[in-house]
């Protein structure tokens, strides 16, 4: 099968994000200028540079009470900071609960019963029991073609790692089993790993 996205695919559901999978989930916490906390998962997320360490996430829809975007991007525009919280398999249900189209006044930490902690380098909340948290300062927001498509880039200025996730000096993902997004309503979990030596190493 071949299709041009501009012509449509003719399938019951869009296959695009099932093709580009699995994708890590950036569980983004923000705090607005008014002090209100927000927490929402984004599966268009990844690390993009080592030095300095940088990450990105993309928001691709809007809410009526936020104009051209959603709560996360709106609050980052106000304050210039955000935190990426890594999602463990055991957190799948509360992560999913935080993804709802809640009103801007709703604190998803409280709504989903998620314990929060204060970030160290930025004025933002973080998921206290997440395997890791990346505290970020905004570097740029890029508007992409299409409606309400924004990519947020940030420099990581602080890193929290749960002590039980460190094994012999390695941040071992098998201690918490990262959750990843696939297509449609599907997710997967990392339970196995293997190593490959690159040529020249």
UniProtKB/TrEMBL annotation:
Molecular function, one GO term: FMN binding
Coiled coil: none
Domain of life: Bacteria
Pfam family, one: Flavin_Reduct
Residue ranges constituting the Flavin reductase like domain according to the UniProt record: 20-173
InterPro entries documented for this protein: Flavin_Rdtase-like_dom (IPR002563), Split_barrel_FMN-bd (IPR012349)
Name of the protein: Flavin reductase (DIM6/NTAB) family NADH-FMN oxidoreductase RutF
Phylogenetic lineage: Bacteria, Pseudomonadati, Pseudomonadota, Alphaproteobacteria, Rhodobacterales
